[in-house]
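Folds abound. A case:
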Amino acid sequence: TNIGIAPQISYQYNERTAFYASLSLHNRKYYKAPDRKSNGFMFTPSIRYFLDQSSYLSSSIYAGEENSRTEIYGNHSRGFNIAYYKAFNKNINAYLSFNGSNTDYKGIETAYNQSRNDISRTLSGTLSYFIKPMNSALSLKLSRTNNSSNIAMYTYKRNQIGLDISTNF
């Protein structure tokens, strides 16, 4: 179970530039692993620059911390995101983004005699189509993640494909 709150603030600086900031606070409980119970926060300032009426570039940075009863799951993380959004018409839009992060875990992994440090990079894209009669959007999502770690067990590459349908009511 993950319960949280994420207040956000935005400021339209001028016609083309907007600033945003969010602070998320959360509390996690694990059904069959109560020792992993944790709480944490993340602060994320960002900027969005509108190229025209149908596209924008955005950039953000973040820093956060998670405190867990089990020390090896507690961590400090920081990262960044750059993204591009383009609406081709009223029904079709695309979103491309790159995320990079560095996560330092607090506890020492007993089997490895060291604390874990991960560097993750994710490139993702979404193509969405609005279906007017259903007041819904159909989205195709693709992503590629490359996670490097000082502990080989946590190094991986992952490709994901998703197909979502969402509706407003």
